[in-house]
Amino acid sequence: MTQNQRKIASKFSLSQRAVPDNSSFLIKYIVLSQANLSINMIKTLFTSNTIFLAVLAIGIILLLVGLTAKKSNDPVEKSKAIASFYDLKATSIDGKEINFEQFKGKKVLIVNTASACGYTYQYEGLQKLHDLYGEDVDSDIADFCEKNYGVTFQMFSKITTRGKNQSPIYTWLTNKDLNGWNEKKPTWNFCKYLVNEDGDLVAFFDKSIKPLSKEITGLL
Q: What is 85-217's CATH superfamily?
């Protein structure tokens, strides 16, 4: 090879090395593009799944809240008493023990009365209610009640209606695990609880409900 040929060959070799390998670059570009595409697809899928799961979770929470709200707004279901009303006892106003078993087959309206109260006027309504729907009580008790309170219906000695010293009567009246449904305690004097002929608690009436109101007489 002549000196001139060697120079030409040398220049060709340099030129060849200076030109990038387009096919190799293309392959690398395709591989990198595919890799980036895969990463983007994974990110997109991850984001989509995260959003879907978040929406699903929120939907479940709203559903549970809705069911809970519906349940809380439903009327209280009045089931039969678990503990017997007729196992209770009380001391009458004249000191005699009264067994509630004697009230079987009768409706009983229990009222926490008071002698000096803004609702004391309801004594008159209770007496009229007794005259219309009640039965005669023991004559000695009736005489005692009429002499001291101006009424003839059955009255009992003072008891505690709420708190740690609560009477067993009011424990039964205000504990749904005993009476079957009610947990309402007396808010003041002259609150009323109605027990039916079978010994089941059927209604609670706040102090503002008068004895001769339709809410009460409609159940007698």
A: Glutaredoxin (3.40.30.10)
For residue 94, which amino acid is it? D
Tell me the per-residue pLDDT of 94-105, one tens digit each, with 9 for 90 and over. Answer: 899 999 999 999
| For residue 39, pLDDT beyond 70 | no
| pTM of the entire predicted model | 0.64
Q: Do 155 and 149 form a contact (C-beta atoms < 8 A)?
A: yes
Structure-block tokens of residue 186 = 């007396």
Residue of 114, 117, 159, 209 marked catalytic: 117
Q: What mean pLDDT is reported for the chain?
A: 77
Give all strands (DSSP E) within the chain, no chain letters. Answer: 89-91, 97-99, 108-111, 192-195, 201-205
Q: Give which of 203, 185, 179 is closest to 108, Cα–Cα.
A: 203
Return the domain boundaries, the chain. 3-73, 85-217
* Catalytic-residue membership of 191: no
Give the Cα separation of 218 and 220 in Å (integer).
6
